[in-house]
Every structure is written in C-alpha cells, then in structure tokens.
Amino acid sequence: MFKVLSYSFMPCPNFLKPRASFKVQKDAIGTRTLLNVQKDAIVCGTRTKVARNPNMERLPNNYLFPEIEARQLEHEKKYPDAQVISLGIGDTTEPIPDVITKTMSDYALSLSTLEGYSGYGAEQGNKALRLAIAQKLYPDLAVKDTEVFVSDGSQCDISRIQLLLGSKVTVAVQDPSFPAYIDSSVIIGQASDLQPTTGKYQNIEYMKCVPQNNFFPDLSNASRTDVIFFCSPNNPTGHAASREQLEQLVEFARENGSIIVYDTAYAAYITDKSPRSIYEIPGAREVAIEVSSFSKSAGFTGVRLGWTVVPEELLYSDGFPVVHDYNRIMCTCFNGASNIAQAGGLECLSTEGVRALCSKVDYYKENAQILLDTFSSLGLKAYGGVNAPYVWVHFPGRRSWDVFSEILQKTDIITVPGCGFGPGGEEFIRVGAFGHRETILEASTRLKSLFL
Amino acid sequence: MIHRHLISTSISSSSPSAFLGQDHLCNLRRRIVLHRVKKSWICKCSAKPSADKTAYKTKVSRNENMGKLQAGYLFPEIKRRRAAHMLKFPDAQVISLGIGDITEPIPEVIASAMAKRSKSLATIKGYSGYGAEQGEKLLRATIASTFYANLGIGEHDVFISDGAKNDISRLQVLFGSDVTVAVQDPSYPAYVDSGVIMGQTGRYQNNVGYGNIEYMKCSPDNDFFPDLSSVSRADVIFFCSPNNPTGSAASRNQLTQLVQFAKDNGSIIIYDSAYALYMSDDSPKSIFEIPGAKEVAIEISSFSKYAGFTGVRLGWTVVPKELQFSDGFPVAKDFNRIVCTCFNGASNIAQAGGLACLSPEGLEAMQEVIGFYKENTHIIIETFKSLGFNVYGGKNAPYVWVHFPGQNSWDLFEEILEKTHVVTIPGSGFGPGGEGFIRVSAFGHRANVLEACKRFKELYK
To answer: Cβ separation of B175 and A109 shorter than 8 Å?
Structure first.
C-alpha cells in the first residue's frame, strides 16, 4: 500500500488522508499508473442530496504536480537526512530582479496614499500593461492592446477558456502535454470517460509527439476537432515548433475551421529562429488564441501574472467574435490580476526589466545545457533543453513511474514521469532546469553515478 | 479595425510611471477610452453576428450558454454609462456611489507588509515561487483562528483565493451544469451569471429571470428573508449576508431556518459573507455559527471591502470537511482538485498583505476604515429618510437600498445621473426583485458623499 498525502504540500490531518492504493496497470503500454482513492466516506455525518459532478469522477488521480509534491514529501519523511533535489515541478528558483521587485514594493506602498490608491482595475487588465504587452511582445504582429487580456496566469486562463468554449466542443492535445489542458477539458465535460487500457479520454484527440515525428504531430492522421491545444516551446518535450510546422498547423486549423489555443509560456527560452508567437504565421489571427505567462520568464510563479490574446478576427461559426464572449467571461468569472503584480509586469517589459530577465532566462538555459550534456554523456537520448527549460530523457522500454521512483530512491532527485503528461510520455522522464547552479551540478554528479 | 483612434488618445507611455502616481484625470481619460471600446462590445453582444460575409469564420459553435446572457455583466455596464455621461458633460463633477469600490487607501501596516514581501522576492532567502494552491499555511491558519474560532473550522478547511467573485465561478465549475440553483432576489449578479455560463439555466424571460433558477424574493414585505415554505428545493442555495444589494443581515433565527431548510432538502448553501465586518448588531457573521451548518454550507469571503483589496485581490472559501455529496464523497476533496487544476494560488504578495490584515494592528486599522464607510452609510441613510423615502440596509452593510415604488430602476438611475451627476445602481440589475429600488453605495471620500447627499436633497426636495 502506498499512502499518499493528496492535499497541500504540508501534512494533513488524518481524517483527510485518502486511503490510496497504488495500482499499476501491467498490460498496455502508455497507461498511467493509477492511484485509486477509495470512495468510502471517511467522514461521518449527514450527506447532502447534491450529486457529485460526474466530470470530477472522471478524474481518477490527483493533478500531476501535487502528486509529485506528495511523493517528494513522502520521500523526505522516509529519509529525513536526504538532500533532496527537485528538478520536478517547473518552479523558478532565482530571485526576481531588483528593478522589478522595487517597482512592486513602491506600488504596494503607494496604495496606502490618497494619490496612489486604486481599487478595482479593469477586468481585462491595466491599460498601460496591455499596451506594453502588445507593443513589446508582439512587435509588427498587429496585436492590439484591446486583444490582450491580463490574467493571474496561464493555468487559470486555460480553465477560463474552457468555460468560454463550453462542454460541447471537441478537443485535441499534443501527447504528451501540460496536464491542465486535459484535466480542465474533463472537468468542463468535453472529454467523456478515461479508457483504462489506453489511458486516454474517449473524446479527446491525442496527437502523438515523439522523436520519430520530430515532436510534431502527423496532421494527415489527425481527426478534426473544434479546439487544438498546442504548446511551443513544449512542456514537457522542450521542442519548439518550426515556422514550417506552425504553417502546417495553421493551415490544418483553417481547413478544419478549428481554433488553436497556443501556449507560449516558454517563448522567452527560444534560442533559434523558431517563432515566438503563433501570430508570426499568416492567417493565424483568424484561428488562434495565444496564452502566455510571466511565470517562467520573470520568476512570477508565486506573484501570478499572465495574459491571453484573443484577436478580433477570431469568429465562431455564426460570425460572433470570440473576443466578446471572452471579455464577458473575464468580467464575470474574474476580477483582474493583482494590481501589484501588474505593476511588476509593466516593469518586466521596461528596457532594464527585459535586460535583467534575459540574464535569468539565460541562467536556466545554461542549467538545461548542463543537464543535456550529462544525459548525453551517459549515452541516454535527451531532447529539448535548447528552446525550453526542460530536458526530455528517453528510457526505452521502461515505465516512467518506475524510472521516476528509481531516480528518486537512488539519487534523491525529483523528476516528473513522462506518462503524467499523457500516454505519449511513457518511457520518458522530464527533468526541469530550474534550480541554483550548484544544485544542478550536484544533480548532474548524482545522475552520472547512477547511470554509469 | 475598431477604436484605433481612441486608443491613440490614451496614455500610451509604457513606463512604470504610467502606473505610479496616477492622477484622477489620467484615470478618467483611460477609463473613458476603455469604455468607449466596451460600449461597442456591449452593443455587439446583443447584435446579430458580423454582417461581413467575406470574413473567415471558424467552424466552432459559440457556447450557447454565453448566448443566454443578457448584455454585459452589470458593473461594466454601469461603468460604461458613467463614461458616456462624462463625455456628454465634461465639466460635471461626477460622483460614483455605484460600483462598490473602495476609495480610502490601504492602511500602512498592510501596504508595507506587501512592500516588504515584494522586496524579499529579490533575495535568495526570501524568494518563493509556486505557493500551495490552497494558500499559505499561516494565512489559512490565521483566517481560521480569527474568523472561525470555536466554530470547528480549521486551517485545512480554508482555501485562499484571489477574491470571492472568482471562487463563485470555481464553485460553479465544481458543481457542474446539472445542479439546480436558488438565489436571493435581488442578489449579487455573479451567482446567476456564472450559473448561466455553466449551463445550469434556461433562457431569460423579461421580469421573470432565467429558467431553472429558483428566485427567492427578498423584499421589505418579508423582512428581506425569503419565505422558505414557498421555495422549491434546489441543490445549491446562494445566500449573501450582510446582503448585497439590500444591506440586510439575516438574524440567527433566520439563518437557523435556512440551515434547517438546507438540511431537510439535502441542499448546499453557498454563504457569501464578504461584508460580515460591517455588521453593527449581533447578527451572525458566519454561517458556521449556526449548529449543523458545517454539513450543509460553504462560506466565501474576501479582503476586498475590509482592507481595500479590490485591486490587490485576496479572499477565501471555507469548505468544511463534514460537507459531503450524496454519495458521501467530501466536497472539499473536489474543491481542492479544482483549486489545483483551474487555479494556481493567490498572489504571494497579496497573501503577505492578508496576513498583515489579521495582525492586531491590521485588524484595528481595518476596523477604522470600515467605521469610516459606515459613517458614510449613515449620512446617506439620513439623507434619504429626511426626504421621505423608505430606506433599507445601511446598518449592517455599506449599501443603502432605496425604494421608489412603481418606478423603473434603470430610468431612475438615468434620471439621478442626469440631474445630480451621481452614479448609483438600478435595483433590477440585481434581479427582477430589485425593480423599484436603487442601490447607493457608501464607498467614497467623505466630501464626495456629503456633496452627493446635498445633490439628492436638491433633486428630491
């Protein structure tokens, strides 16, 4: 029996501790390891007559990242003297540049003054910030500030986009992909049931992205869906789609009348000439929403700031502009990102801010290179790491949870098992490049000793 | 396409100074630009689809739930009308007693805690990335001990949010489209609108409301508490007390009835206590003061109206461990899953502010600001009473609910705006039961509130 604490990272009182059984599906390849949480009522007392949302029942596991945290906690409890290194959850580690934190600090203080106080901001975001995002991050791409909606982060925006689109749309995801696309799809009611043998949801189209197809799906084999989630640079594979690949994607979307939800949270990590925005592709404005974030470029994982672009030209089948409905969602289901975070965001886009952040991004990229070199020197095939802060390591024939466990057990390093990102991630491990340099070097040493 | 020329008149500087030291006029200009944009959006919302037949269209059907919504959300609509009025009367000194937006600065003890946390993020020792999605441990624990001491609510029952409005939608996502919902009528529009978006409702009928929603009328005739004997069962009951917009605070007796009603029907109450600290009498501040409530209720609350956090964004939701779905599954487990998947935690800087709010100094400072707004409320109540109106609320909430029997509330809103340049909110914006009422909010600088009252006296003398 494998007891897992499924709530916060902190220990939970016993009555909330789910009794979990660790059930490994031994047959099909690509099946997620299921953590079955028993439904027995742990609490006594009167039940309401409100039926549980059946969509929630379709989620068999914890969300991936709390699950990783829980395993880390378990390991630390078991080995209290271990120096655990976390290369799992993609959490930034380096402090935010002074120039940005000083702005946030000054802004916070100004809220205690009559002249500086501001209450509710526009739900779509501070105008100057929207303008700065449009002008500085989409130069020459005709993105207007009125198309930019500031948020408290991509993960939140993904769910708001799902709320916008509703339960009746069909969805395609890359396989593997950031789990929020699938999980939010399940929650909103698009996905139907999980098929235990394949580890796939019935109504979701999985577009396999593997080394053999250069991590770009074979679109000639892909069925039409209303919505296509596409992340580039990709989490978890680290692959940045080329211009040619994205032209194919936009063409595919146009032919099928689909909407691409394009996640560019890692665009700042691009090293080569791969497009940083879907709007670099002609015709994309009529088929794509773009979601992005300050999390991984500015260390804002805790501060919470992101944005979504919804072009005016993006229309539903009846000609209704998607942006109008998105605006309504933002006004009704959201109340704006924190004004202090937005002040920080604006500073991030100043000349000095950009310069300071580039050096942080470079730091993590150097980390990624160290990890790439490490795995390569061990004769393991490692992908990504050049345009993204993730290294995607192949362990042919091995189950990713097994590899995760072995690495954790033997080196006290937390990674993320590839199947957590979908069946296409089986046999892979994602190693994050976020960490202090000395930690990365130490991890590298330990990995070398394990695999040599 | 649209509005390029308008945008160019806005403040286009993207330097940080565009953020700091904003003067009121700058804000005004900026908001005007934004609202001119919004005006055309709102018109389009109810207009037919684009007439340009050559425009490329995707083959994705619009979410029919969005199509059910009647025009824009209430408060942006108020903003839009205010902006239009200001364009029409550029010299008018418009006073806003409409949207419940805080006007007084955040107490220094709280602002400086946030400043300190911001600065610490630049240090190796002080930097933190992702926080627990449920919120920082100490803040959760302090909320539990400050607001729910001796009520059997612990740290793990508290989920920190970026505001009550956002949690309302997350709760709707949690419950799904198949639940039936009851709301007070009138009520805060987010309950109904989020329900429409989720697909819980039928179409809208004028003067009746949305199909499939149980509207529980709250009027002077029933002391602003619904006659539960005539209310049909709903899975979820939204209940706000002290109430926005009526200002009424439910008594212990009334809440005991409500809890019993929920128990009898196996319903879940979503209890919105965002204005609890405005209470003057000893009406319950939390639903959990009522025995048995933990098995039937979720409570949402916010720092917005206590600490001036309307822009900072911080709130919380309590989901007791005892609350179960019909199959025995704990609601808190699913809420936790939603919070982990559809959210990523409130801003760490805001949370540092929240913790400072709950320090002895912070609590005292908040009470002082709340007291200030309560004095405003008193001034407004006295004004309308002296003019012979039937006035409700104001004692336990920062809203005054003024009755204009037989009159159309949007017409009233326009008349008041036109003749006094004071923005209020038409009661029907809160539901059919709000028709014939105007909500006047007490958030404002004292001078503005006094001036507004002077103008009301002129108009209605």
So the answer is: no
pTM, entire model: 0.90
B139 contacts on A by Cβ (under 8 Å): none
The whole domain housing B36 covers 4-46
B99–A120 C-beta distance less than 8 A:
yes
Same-domain check for residues A228 and A116: yes
Q: How near does any CA of chain B get to the CA of A258, in Å?
A: 6
Across the interface, whether the CB atoms of B321 and A159 are under 8 A apart is answered no
Domain hosting residue A40, numbered range: 14-50
- The pLDDT tens digits for A136-175 are 999 999 999 999 999 999 999 999 999 999 999 999 999 9
B409 to chain A, closest Cα gap in Å:
22
Q: How far does A93 lie from chain B, in Å, by closest CA?
A: 7
Is the CB of B49 less than 8 angstroms away from the CB of A320? yes
Domain co-membership, A207 together with A293: yes
Over the stretch B275-331, which tens digit does the pLDDT of each residue have? 999 999 999 999 999 999 999 999 999 999 999 999 999 999 999 999 999 999 999
Claim to verify: residue A285 and residue A420 sit in the same structural domain: no
- CB-nearest to A91 from B130, B262, B268 is B130
Let me know whether A78 and A119 are in one domain: no
A401-432 per-position pLDDT tens digit: 999 999 999 999 999 999 999 999 999 999 99
Contact between A315 and B3 using a beta-carbon 8 Å cutoff: no
The pLDDT tens digits for A345-378 are 999 999 999 999 999 999 999 999 999 999 999 9
Instruction: Measure CB to CB from residue A108 to each of B114, B137, B338 and give the nearest one.
Output: B114
With an 8 Å Cβ cutoff, are B310 and A315 in contact?
no
| Three-class DSSP labels, chain B | CCCHHHHHCCCCCCCHHHCCCCCHHHHHHHHHHHHHHHHHHHHHHHCCCCCCCCCCCCCCCCCHHHHHCCCCCHHHHHHHHHHHHHHHCCCCCCEECCCCCCCCCCCHHHHHHHHHHHHHCCCCCCCCCCCCCCCCHHHHHHHHHHHCCCCCCCHHHEEEECCHHHHHHHHHHHHCCCCCEEEEECCCHHHHHHHHHHCCCCCEECCCEECCEEEEECCHHHCCCCCHHHCCCCCEEEEECCCCCCCCCCCHHHHHHHHHHHHHHCCEEEEECCCHHHCCCCCCCCHHHCCCHHHCEEEEEECHHHHCCCCCCCEEEECCCCCECCCCCEHHHHHHHHHHHHCCCCCHHHHHHHHHHCCHHHHHHHHHHHHHHHHHHHHHHHHHHHCCCCEEECCCCCEEEEECCCCCHHHHHHHHHHHHCEECEEHHHHCHHHCCEEEEECCCCHHHHHHHHHHHHHHHC
Rounded to the nearest angstrom, the minimum Cα separation between B460 and chain A is 31
